[in-house]
Amino acid sequence: MEFNNNYHMLIGGELVAAEARLDVVNPANEQVIACVPDAGAAELDAAVAAARKAFPGWAATPIAERKAMLDALADSIFANVDGFKRLLTAEQGKPHHEAQGEIMGAGYWLKAYTALDLPETVNEDSDERLSITRHVPLGVVGAIAPWNFPMILAMFKVAPGLLAGNTMVLKPSPFTPLCTLKFAELAKEILPAGVLNVITGGDHLGPLMTAHPGFDKISFTGSTQTGRRVMASAAPTLKRVTLELGGNDAAIVMPDVDVEKIAEQLFWAAFTNNGQICIATKRMYIHKDIYEPLRDALVAYARTVKVGDGSEQGTQIGPINNEAQYNRVLDLIQDAKDNGYKFLLGGEKAEVPGYFVPITILDNPPEDSRIVQEEQFGPVLPLIRFDDFEDVLNRVNASDYGLGGSVWGSDEDKAFELAQRVQSGTVWVNETQHLSPLAAFGGMKQSGVGVEGGLEGLLEYTSAQTLVRRKKAAFVN
Ligand code: NAD
User: Fold this and answer.
1) For residue 285, which of 305, 255, 247, 330 has the smallest C-alpha distance?
2) pLDDT value at residue 41
3) CA–CA separation, 279 and 277 (whole Å)
4) Strand-pair partners of 9
5) Strand order of the sheet with strand 9-11?
6) Which PANTHER family match (predicted)?
7) Overall average pLDDT of the 368-376 stretch
8) Long-range own/partner contacts, residues 385-392 (CB < 8 A, 24 or more apart)
9) Which residue's C-alpha comes closest to atom 16 of ligand 1?
């Protein structure tokens, strides 16, 4: 595929423009790098109509054929990794090596998901009746993706949605639409017309989608605040929703870790993708016995990390993706300054073009500070001292969020015991952020509704249907 600067939406198997256009900015230098269609109600109606038209044919396509097409889509991503990688860095900001990891992950997600099948349960098979429960597709799914991992998080939805037999309308974030539109060009060559439609637009487009009566389900990944709006807007037509929302993941570091060995791993748990990961470590609770040495090791490692334009050789952390998020992170830093919290590193605005915030680490701010209680979604990490396990669990669990979390310790059984008491959808022991297409992933509490991944995630794109067949009915000869 040619990674030229022409961007079109995919509606009903055709690459189409919209009357209005939307600028896309490279966050490393604030330059406009492309224009994409800015769809409105008319384009949305066309996309929904195309998906509705394609639905009966796709739902009736044998699952093995649907899987073969997902597999081909994955291969077409793999065949274009280099172009996607460069484009992802330009629109999102992440360094090339991370961009490559995301693109490979997107292909892998599509491929690996094909291992799953829709189960059929025999509830009763007696002389009197046969009762089975099967899972049928819902219809048309609206998929709304965020800007932190535009490609892989879109595939979290496309893989189960299409495998289950639904047709879809996918909308990327207005900040990161480019890779998704190039992916649409690949999909055009592989999928029947209308099975996957891709539309792009500004802030108005998401609410138009969630309110549209032509969708049977909305699968949304984004902030908790927007998730509430999505759920309210989906309610009048009782659309199914899967909501993958924000988090404030805690890492609990036990006193028996090897401080020197663990510091680098803990650093990246918080700062990969510039902290813009829903399951990034956003508050780090460190046992008092190792607080000072680990604090110092983290800061020493952080000083070696290169922040810069993701397209430059050696860059390890890029800019924040967009101006609104950049201002939000600066506001949290200002709040910490205003309250006199101690900065170990960073805290100053980088006076260069681009949305750069230096790596910032705070020394034991109070539990009720904004930087501990809120989701920062940027390169600012509070280190918090604890001395009692019950107390730290209470603090970790006293949050409206419940997305992920991690426990780190040499005594793996003890760490695993603690992990089971963290109220989050995923808890890791001695690693973090490892996700699998074959494992359910979702948030507890206000971090989400439903899951993606695994059989549980696949079934969220279906309705259970029970079929009951009477045997030897009285009126049958
Ligand atoms: P966001 O909520 O601002 O936007 C997400 C998407 O929703 C975008 O495509 C946006 O255009 C669209 N949107 C905005 N307003 C809408 C509305 N009223 N109705 C429907 N759609 C609307 O989120 P973001 O800033 O792009 O992403 C960052 C957030 O996403 C963070 O909170 C992060 O934790 C969360 N996130 C969660 C997961 C997860 O799997 N749980 C994964 C990644 C990111």
Assistant:
1) 255
2) 98
3) 5
4) 16
5) 14-16, 9-11, 196-198, 167-171, 140-144, 217-221, 240-244, 448-449
6) ALDEHYDE DEHYDROGENASE-RELATED (PTHR11699)
7) 98
8) 385/285, 385/286, 385/287, 385/288, 385/291, 386/252, 386/285, 386/286, 386/287, 386/288, 387/287, 387/288, 389/418, 392/252, 392/285
9) 206
Mean pLDDT over each residue of the chain, to the nearest integer: 97
Which run of H or of E encompasses 196? strand 196-198
Task: Give the model's confidence band at 144: pLDDT under 50 very low, under 70 low, under 90 confident, else very high.
Answer: very high
7: pLDDT strictly greater than 90? yes
Using the mean position of ligand 1's atoms as its centre, give its distance from the Cα of residue 223 in Å.
Answer: 4
pLDDT at 350: 77
DSSP state of 12: T
Q: What is the pLDDT of residues 402-418, one digit of tens each?
A: 999 999 999 999 999 99
Residue nearest to atom 9 of ligand 1 (CA): 173
CA of 140 to the centre of ligand 1 (A): 20
Neighbours of 236 (CB within 10 A): 9
Name all domains of the chain by residue range, CATH numbers in brackets. Answer: 9-245+447-466 (3.40.605.10), 250-429 (3.40.309.10)
User: Probe ligand 1: pick from 176, 226, 245, 279, max atoms within 8 Å of CB?
Assistant: 226
Q: With a threshold of 0.90, does the pTM exceed it?
A: yes
Q: Return the number of other C-beta atoms located less than 10 Å from residue 200's C-beta.
A: 28
Tell me which of 151, 223, 325 to substitute to probe ligand 1's pocket, judged by most ligand atoms within 8 Å of the beta carbon: 223
Residue 23 has pLDDT above 90, yes or no: yes
Q: Which atom of ligand 1 is nearest to the CA of 149?
A: 43
pLDDT of residue 406: 98
How many angstroms is it from 203 CA to the middle of ligand 1?
Answer: 11
Q: What pLDDT is attached to residue 422?
A: 98
Is the pLDDT assigned to residue 63 strictly greater than 80?
yes
For residue 198, count other CB atoms closer than 10 A to its CB: 29
Q: Annotated catalytic, 244?
A: yes
* Measured distance CA(154)–CA(146) in Å, rounded: 8
Task: Please give the average per-residue pLDDT across 62-81, as a whole number.
Answer: 98
Residue 111 CA to ligand 1 centre (angstroms)? 25
Q: Which residues lie with the beta carbon below 6 Å from any ligand 1 atom?
A: 144-148, 153, 171, 173-174, 206-207, 210, 221-223, 226, 229-230, 244-247, 278, 375, 377, 403, 443, 448
Q: Is the pLDDT of residue 475 over 80?
A: no
